[in-house]
Amino acid sequence: MHELILAPGEGVFLFTDGVTEANDPAGADYGDARLRAMLEKQGERAAEALVRAVAADVDRFANGAAQADDIACLALVFRGEG
Question: Is residue 34 part of a domain?
Answer without folding.
Answer: yes
